[in-house]
Prior knowledge:
Blueprint: H1 2-16, E1 24-28, E2 31-36, E3 39-40, E4 46-51, E5 58-65, E6 70-74, E7 83-88, E8 98-104, E9 110-114, E10 117-121, E11 124-126
Amino acid sequence: MIRFLKIAFAVCVPLMMGIQQHSVSVHIDSMTLTVYPRVVQPGASIRLTCRVPRHKSNRAVTWGFDNWTSTTRQLDGVYARVTWESVFDHVPCDPGRAFCEVWRVEARNQRVSQEVIVVGCDGEKTE
């Protein structure tokens, strides 16, 4: 019964608040971060997709969550891959904002982020 209530809470509250369950994309200077799904229960999985335009000064890309975990990969300037994607399993109650950051030679980094909503943590919604 308690499990049913947690699932109902995770599905109904976002719908009542007008939060849609599809992916959310954020664009800044041709860089894109897509978070799917944006509303989850603790222990669920979230897929982050980071799209970074090719640039001769790009040296590394990092994507993940501010308070939880992240992944870093080297970039090879104009020859680098454009799309980077990971599925993060077992989301905690407070993972922080999802982000994608590009590190450049001239130390002029670009960062894009999106909030993630975790519902069902001790009956409270955490953002």
